[in-house]
TrEMBL record:
Keywords: 2Fe-2S, Iron, Iron-sulfur, Metal-binding. It comes from Alloyangia mangrovi. One of its GO terms (molecular function) is 2 iron, 2 sulfur cluster binding. It comes from the Bacteria. This is (2Fe-2S)-binding protein. SUPFAM superfamilies: ISP domain. Gene3D superfamilies: Rieske [2Fe-2S] iron-sulphur domain. Residues 6-112 form the Rieske domain.
Length: 125
């Protein structure tokens, strides 16, 4: 892992077709959501853009996808987001996007985020 990166998880921690939330720093109020779709990993802040400051989206731990597993869902507002782009396609935040988080995968399968992303997650809440 390069300098300025913080490890979130290992690729194997996110099976195909699932999403999980990881705290980038201990005690951070915001998770980083990692979704595995088609073998590609997508990262977003766990903050629905419907309200200023964002609302956590899962109704229970790691429940970030809709029932069909086709979209990221905000269970508080009923919003649906495209997994590949983070664009809201249904719900009260139509036309807005989730905040994308750049993910880096190391040769050993470790997934990390830039330290500044981890810092932002620690400040928001």
């Amino acid at each position: 892992m390069s300098a300025g990166q913080l490890r979130l998880c290992h690729r194997d921690d996110i099976p195909e077709g699932t999403a999980r939330g990881f705290l980038p720093l201990p005690g951070a109020p915001r998770n980083v959501i990692v979704v595995n779709r088609g073998g590609r990993l997508h990262g977003y802040m766990d903050a629905c853009p419907h309200y200023r400051g964002g609302t956590p989206m899962a109704w229970r731990r790691d429940a970030y996808l809709n029932g069909e597993g086709t979209h990221i869902a905000c269970h508080a507002h009923g919003a649906l987001f495209e997994i590949e782009t983070g664009a809201c396609v249904s719900g009260p935040c139509l036309g807005r996007n989730l905040t994308r988080v750049p993910l880096t995968e190391a040769e050993d399968g470790s997934i990390s985020v830039p330290a500044q992303v981890a810092g932002r997650a620690a400040r928001e809440g």
